[in-house]
Amino acid sequence: MRGEDMPIEQKRQEHEIRMIGRLELSVTGVKQLESFDQEEFLIETVEGMLSIKGSGLKLVNLDLDKGLVSLKGKVDDVLYLDSIGQESSKGLLGKLFR
């Protein structure tokens, strides 16, 4: 293995979501915490934008150097906001209205 190949392998950050019941949640592979309040966290991950909705949500830990966010509260919804899917639907509409 050449030394120049090693940084490429190390750049790949894993993304994982762990939830204990519906009361504790941790996310790895976090690039940035876009916004958060007691009802929604919006997180940029290596796999895309992630929305976590619930009630009484509280930030427990934020470590962007390690790519980690932890929160507590009642989690109702975990959703990836996939812009790729949105672009595809726009393309389909564009095809229909040619």
TrEMBL record:
<dbReference type="GO" id="GO:0030435">
    <property type="term" value="P:sporulation resulting in formation of a cellular spore"/>
</dbReference>
<dbReference type="InterPro" id="IPR012504">
    <property type="entry name" value="Spore_YabP"/>
</dbReference>
<protein>
    <submittedName>
        <fullName>Sporulation protein YabP</fullName>
    </submittedName>
</protein>
<dbReference type="Pfam" id="PF07873">
    <property type="entry name" value="YabP"/>
</dbReference>
<dbReference type="InterPro" id="IPR038705">
    <property type="entry name" value="YabP_sf"/>
</dbReference>
<dbReference type="InterPro" id="IPR022476">
    <property type="entry name" value="Spore_YabP/YqfC"/>
</dbReference>
